Amino acid sequence: MTAKITQFLAEQRPETPCLVVDLDIIADNYDALRRFLPVAQVFYAVKANPAKEVISLLVGLGSCFDTASRPEIEQVLAAGASPDRISFGNTIKKQKDIAWAYEQGVRLFAFDSEAELQKLAQSAPGAKVFCRLLMTCEGAEWPLSRKFGCDAEMARDLLIKARDLGLEPYGISFHVGSQQTRLDQWDIAVGKTAMLFTALNEAGIELKMINLGGGLPARYRDDVAPVDDYASAIMNAMTKHFGNDLPLMIVEPGRSLVGDSGIIEAEVVLISRKSYDEDVRWVYLDIGKFGGLAETMDESIKYRLQAPGEGPSGPVVLAGPTCDSADILYEKYQYQMPLSLKVGDKVRILATGAYTTSYSAVNFNGFEPLKAYYV
Amino acid sequence: MTAKITQFLAEQRPETPCLVVDLDIIADNYDALRRFLPVAQVFYAVKANPAKEVISLLVGLGSCFDTASRPEIEQVLAAGASPDRISFGNTIKKQKDIAWAYEQGVRLFAFDSEAELQKLAQSAPGAKVFCRLLMTCEGAEWPLSRKFGCDAEMARDLLIKARDLGLEPYGISFHVGSQQTRLDQWDIAVGKTAMLFTALNEAGIELKMINLGGGLPARYRDDVAPVDDYASAIMNAMTKHFGNDLPLMIVEPGRSLVGDSGIIEAEVVLISRKSYDEDVRWVYLDIGKFGGLAETMDESIKYRLQAPGEGPSGPVVLAGPTCDSADILYEKYQYQMPLSLKVGDKVRILATGAYTTSYSAVNFNGFEPLKAYYV
């Protein structure tokens, strides 16, 4: 809770559920990242929170932008960023969207497959392209599966092919998994990347850029290392594997820039028990999995909660307001709440500035998407 | 595929992804249900597809409506249904929404807890209330968890309390789980309900209604029994446990009325392999888990797919277009697609008329919510 958010909630008393974001926190997080990783260019992952207030702030601070789609690129351009500050970082793009982005002046594109490379060669001739490397990501709370990236052998061949197709083979990207809690994962990933740099050098290609992806955490329920520990781990890995000859470094923070900046205020709609012999209370909030808390899927992201009331606490199952049985936030991972909690109380869900509003269902069960205020 | 949908797609060539719903199928499904279960009142579960075209059609056909929220009630009223055709079926309601619904003339409300009963007594005096009974639902593909309902002992006490609070203890509801494939589940549930009718009779309360919930399936990947088999199973259970003295019966179909009526047309954005030694192709569509296919969560609902092309097929992992690693549709449950499949091909996802549009994320990764056309 920041003073600005507290004041906003006290004075405006907005309808719940709502997200309130303190933009100063985002600015502070951006400055801290720039201070601890001065050699890296910051490409904000717009998908984490695409609000125009957030994008405008970061345009003003000098950030670059990692975008997933044409509408995200449109937003970033509309906020005043020049196209050379934009990376079209999705490896899954429609040909017509590549062509459109290229027309706007975007020149940096991700890929991880031959089919995507062919699209880029056709619709973005001469553009800088980087290949995403498949990583096995231990220690990430929101794991990245195998959806993105290809293995090192294929990445090498594709970067050679990129050159042959008239593109500029520019670098390698990877992602160690979102909300990554194990610092050693960057060492492994940077090591693999450095080997690829060498392999491509032997093929006459000098890669210029390493894109270290995201993965820096926000503070949820469990404590995480401070950002400077992450920065040190990254820089140690870079100097270990690249020596003094560091390539251009890019980071793509989303969660770590905006996660901590926001708080969702929700209301307790119902508290009940299923039978007389159960101790566990079911606490139903007016926000759930389909109203912005999608990352509670499989109880992956464990938000910190603040409930009013003093005195002893007891175990609760937390659920959302829809008629969907899957709309349960936490059941296996049992939270505790004051026994004095009552219907109508306000509960605050902390560090919800990232991956909440844009995940909201458009009108599931008739409920409106999550409202947000930027202060 | 119906002729109307085929014609619409051929003539209009809408941008993908999009859902096309044939309203005639919904009308046919409604008629079939009325024919096979003539003694039951149909309350359409609006959450399955809240499009105004669907609601208007069902208002015209004489359906009643199971609603989850104030906006759903507003929609049903706006479509011309009188308030006595509306059940406020969500057991998790804000007090102010109960009061609002009561002002509109809604007189039928669900509950499963004492706290909810207190709200109803205060804001909907004299209303008919029914208590939802907790069921363990084996055989349901979209299981209902323990989120809704209370056990039989508590249900009995709460219905007695309802009378004491000036409400009309009207009946019992249950839900055997959505997309329920085991016909015997209704027998178990009806048996439990009949015992509660008896117990309340002994307390001087004559319940009048049994709400059999939803659970009737749509046709996804696996074959399901036809609707008349379900109707027979339900009627057999009713006569077995209630004899000739049948209470008023209510059913709340959602999926079984509208599921089969719609088809999503999607485009293949990318086909790739992760390495040279893997046979499995990754096929990325322009729709995914956050664009309307939320029910692929944990690969629960397995849609039937139609892909173009002849010749041999091979295994695929199917994924959506966002940069979210969780946006994978089917990985464990491997689908087969023609080896000749190529980028730009159209893939049709069948039986997607229910639980798709309203689940769409509002703008995750910048992508628009799923567009829908009703023909």
Topology at a glance:
The structure is a homodimer of 375-residue chains.
Chain A (H helix, E strand, L loop, with lengths): L2 H10 L5 E4 L1 H14 L3 E6 L6 H10 L2 E4 L2 H9 L7 E3 L6 H10 L3 E4 L2 H10 L4 E5 L7 E3 L9 H13 L3 E6 L4 E3 L3 H19 L6 E3 L15 H16 L5 E4 L3 H4 L3 E11 L8 E5 L19 E2 L6 E7 L8 E11 L7 E4 L21 E4 L1
Helical element count of chain A?
10
> Any low-confidence stretches of chain A, pLDDT <50, length ≥5?
none
Number of discrete domains of chain A? 2
CATH topology of the largest domain in chain A: TIM Barrel
Organism (chains A, B): Telmatospirillum siberiense
Pathway (chains A, B): Amine and polyamine biosynthesis; putrescine biosynthesis via L-ornithine pathway; putrescine from L-ornithine: step 1/1
Family (chains A, B): Belongs to the Orn/Lys/Arg decarboxylase class-II family.
Pfam family, one (chains A, B): Orn_Arg_deC_N
Task: Briefly characterize the structure.
Two copies of one chain form a homodimer. Chain A has ten helices and 18 strands.
Description:
The structure is a homodimer of 375-residue chains. The first copy, chain A, is an alpha/beta fold and 375 residues long. Helices cover 31% and strands 24% of the residues of chain A. Chain A has two domains: 23-259, TIM Barrel (Alpha-Beta Barrel); 260-374, Lyase, Ornithine Decarboxylase, Chain A, domain 1, CATH 2.40.37. Chain A has ten helices and 18 strands. In chain A, strands 1, 12, 13, 14, 15, 16, 17 and 18 form an eight-stranded mixed β-sheet that branches. In chain A, β2, α3 and β3 form a beta-alpha-beta unit. At the A-B interface, α4, α6 and β12 of A face α4, α6 and β12 of B.
